[in-house]
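We now fix the convention by which a protein and its fold are recorded. Here is one such record, which you should read through line by line:

>
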Amino acid sequence: MSSATTKKPMTKTEIVAHFAAKFELQKKVAAAIVAEFAELAVGQTKKVGEFSLPGIGKLVKAKRAARTGRNPQTGESIKIPAKTVVKMRLAKACKDAILPPK
């Protein structure tokens, strides 16, 4: 298989290079912007409970209730405690752009 046919997600370095080229910035500045955006998203989600990425979606803290699970090795029932998780809720425009409705 040639590298042209294998599709891989962009790396952080590729994203930084893309922004540097697109907005005519030094790569160091573009890297700082990407890092700050990630920090802002994490900080706001942690503090406020959600962070909106316009046109993409929303990071949201959600509480997951306690439940009964099963140990796949032994088959025995186990109690899974309640916990807080982070979810990504995609914007409708983003979903429709990636997977157009039928």
